[in-house]
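Hey, sorry to bother you again with one of my protein questions. There's a protein on my desk that I can't quite get my head around. No rush at all, and the record is pasted right below.
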Amino acid sequence: MTGSNTEGGTGPVPHFGGVPVHKRLLAAAAELESAVMARLVEQVPVYGTLPSEQLRGEIARQTGRAIRTCAELLRTGEPLGEAEQAAVRESAAQRADEGVPLEAVVGAYHLGAEECSDHVLAAVRPGDLRDALLVQRRVLGYLRQVSSAVAAGYVQERQAALSDEQVALQSLLSRLLEGGSPQSAADRAGVRLPPCYLALSIAVGPHPDELLPGVNRFVVVRRKLRRLRGELQRHTTGVPLSALSGDGGLVLFPCDTAPAAFGSADRDRLAGLVGHLARMCGADLLVAAVAAPPEGVAEAARLAAEVREVAEASGREPGLYLLDDVLLEYQLSRPSPARAGLAALLAPLDARPELVGTLRAFLACGLDRRRAAARLQVHPNTVDYRLRKVADLTGLDAARGTDLLTLHAALTARDAMRRG
């Protein structure tokens, strides 16, 4: 029996067995509410973990309201009113605040609609096919509108919460970098301070897509950083803190090993992580690491940045570096009466940057002229020629052991003074 429009609305009122469908639904509202609540606890596990007072109160009331809203939409075919959408958004926002996953919230409405559909469709008679199709279409419309409202309320609440969380985490990062006790800032951020932070000063190379013409570099950089942050989070049970841009920055990586106990096994694990991060974000990473307790992060971050600068300036390959890896270069780069004199030894090369670059590559490649040539993309004979020119201009021959040490020291001092 096809329904009529005698009860109001923008379309026909569907009937099953001569009874308006919405009246069947309203008549069984209490029974359906109980059935939906039982299925929620059984089939959506997170709802089973909610306090019983909340389930019997707020969740049950929202379930009853959803059933009545669905019945009204079946009667009229009209879109949900603003008051009903606001109620759905508010309820979804509360679930977001409680940490209920979005898929569970949306799933709860679908489960309720399924229970209501099963109840009314059981009364369908052979002559009710047209009305059955109308009911199905209106139920789908109800779910579309409800899902949109749930997503809007949930996402808005999470954005607000994430904004607050990010502010608190950035405050903790700032406090750690200022020095002193960060405990109060950690409490505000809801973060358990680890025994140790690894201050990672990171230089991030370009992703290959950044170099392609016509590609939106901003999007590529954001994807690169998102992968980097995501992998850092996946490899710790703590909360990494970071200040990163497209070419690098600082990460405070929580570690359960006390700084004094940080040894070769920890270094190997960290080196493996750096290699994994580079593969996942698709870019070369040069990382300097210093371990420190939370109260010592400020000094550790400064030292890590200096170690990275020295490793970069001395032409080191991408990878992990600790202070022990660059002890000589680090010491030579510190201010001293001898530093200016060492740097001045290379002054005759100021007008020949290709000679400085060749010397740097030769030293970084372990005095291997073929590797240096490959890095510079020149013939090995060109490397030999340029090193002879360095000797002619400076009087220091890279083929002599004593001169080689002096050239290394002079180049390090020159780099340090230019950075300064």
